[in-house]
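Pilot study result, target chain (209 residues):
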Amino acid sequence: MSSRAPADYGKNVFINCPFDEEYLPLLRAITFTVTFCGFNARCALEVQDASEVRLAKILRLILESRLSIHDISRTALDRENGLPRFNMPFELGICVGAAHFGGKSQAQKRLLVLDVERYRFQKFLSDIAGQDIKAHHNDQPTAISVTREWLNDFHSGGSLPGGKAIAAQYRRFCDRIPTMLKAIRLHESEVLFSDWKRLIEQWLKEPEV
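Predicted structure:
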């Protein structure tokens, strides 16, 4: 794997979060915010390629993304095996390591860490104490707002619209989804991460009415 950062390195935002149905509304809201703000949302779900080992894909996405969002809120025990899932803290650790040991371009990495409550992480991941953890409270407008506030520091075109304004645009977009899906003959249950990004990009090109 090449260590050279791609041309769009500064615009890529790696989203490290749970992939279950319960979290899906937050993932979609965060992806919309990243795209609306002029950045490129990247996620391990973006390509359905069985030929690429999952960890290799994650390492590549981290390498290619200056910015990353890490939601470490999923700490509940799994119902089937009684164990928590450590994927999100693991990938956060890879990003931190890349920023410290990955060379000049990787040293430019900036991270947003999310949890349900702001200081809850101290009970299970105290090594990141001192980081400015943001809480989304499992609320889409709040997730949109904290994501916008963080991205505003890296946006080169002046201040971004506020979180409330972006949340209002997200509601408009969601209202359009049934019509857009019907036009491409895609059921809502079949929408993949790549489909969601295309829908956002298509909607952003539509003239406002």
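One observation from the pilot: Residues 163-183 form the longest helix (21 residues). A full batch analysis is planned for the follow-on phase.
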